[in-house]
Backbone:
């Protein structure tokens, strides 16, 4: 147990760096420094090979340099533009939940659309398009710079089939020009939306979403049961600010 802990600590970048800085070998003149022994080398190589791969997946690379939290939000005073993202693992988990309650094979082709309302730089949208070849994946975002980043990430997708099933719209998700009549899966990270916005969204969903559509959202939708939605369950989905973030799963009945 203690051996395992010790090893883990050595592998972490910070402790590795500080052990290098404090080591006696580092204080010796270059000529006297010992080269690592043969035994030691392979394990070091293994570590350096493993970590970058883990931290920088092909999916992450699509978003390299595209940070939603650095976008200028000064002019959007009527909106809550607080930023945070669902993680890659969280996108997979959401996809499983959508499939569990509303399997795509049972949805008419024209309704196989996923929407992320307030999509940021578009991670959930692109992730869903990659995971489900039969799905159109759309995102709406009010902050211009975030939508530009999302489109930039989209343009980096090499597979044209995936790229063409993705669409990003700049504007408010409450704008009547956006209708969710052919949407079977909908996600919104609504923790910061005010109650008025929540109720407007709920009315829109009640009027427009097809029967059996599934909505995943962070904050509860008050009165959803009276507008034709059933709360199916609450689960943890990893987000950038909380590994165990609780989300609500609603289904239109
Ligand atoms: C917490 S972030 C979520 C980003 C992304 N959905 C995710 O989970 O990875 C919420 C986003 O909603 C956007 N937003 C807030 N109000 C909006 C509105 N009325 N219309 C469109 N986007 C909005 C914010 O600018 C912000 O980028």
Residues:
């Amino acid at each position: 147990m203690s051996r395992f802990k010790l090893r883990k600590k050595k592998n972490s970048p910070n402790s590795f760096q500080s052990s290098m800085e404090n080591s006696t070998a580092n204080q010796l003149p270059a000529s006297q420094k010992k080269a690592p022994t043969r035994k030691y080398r392979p394990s070091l190589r293994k570590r350096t090979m493993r970590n970058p791969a883990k931290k920088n997946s092909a999916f992450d690379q699509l978003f390299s340099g595209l940070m939603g939290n650095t976008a200028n939000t000064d002019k959007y005073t009527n909106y809550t533009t607080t930023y945070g993202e669902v993680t890659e693992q969280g996108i997979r988990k959401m996809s499983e939940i959508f499939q569990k309650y509303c399997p795509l094979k049972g949805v008419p082709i024209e309704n196989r659309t996923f929407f992320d309302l307030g999509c940021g730089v578009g991670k959930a949208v692109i992730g869903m398009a990659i995971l489900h070849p039969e799905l159109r994946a759309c995102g709406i975002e009010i902050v211009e710079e975030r939508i530009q980043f999302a489109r930039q990430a989209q343009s980096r997708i090499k597979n044209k089939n995936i790229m063409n099933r993705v669409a990003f719209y700049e504007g408010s998700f409450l704008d009547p020009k956006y209708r969710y009549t052919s949407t079977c899966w909908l996600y919104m990270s609504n923790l910061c939306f005010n109650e008025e916005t929540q109720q407007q969204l709920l009315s829109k969903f009640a009027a427009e979403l097809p029967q059996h559509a599934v909505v995943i959202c962070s904050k509860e939708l008050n009165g959803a049961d009276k507008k034709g939605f059933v709360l199916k369950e609450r689960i943890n989905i990893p987000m950038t600010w909380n590994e165990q973030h609780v989300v609500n799963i609603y289904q239109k009945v």
In short: Residues 219 and 227 are 16 Å apart (CA to CA). Confidence is low (pLDDT under 50) at residues 1-53. The domain at 16-24+39-74+84-252 is CATH 3.40.50.150 (Rossmann fold).
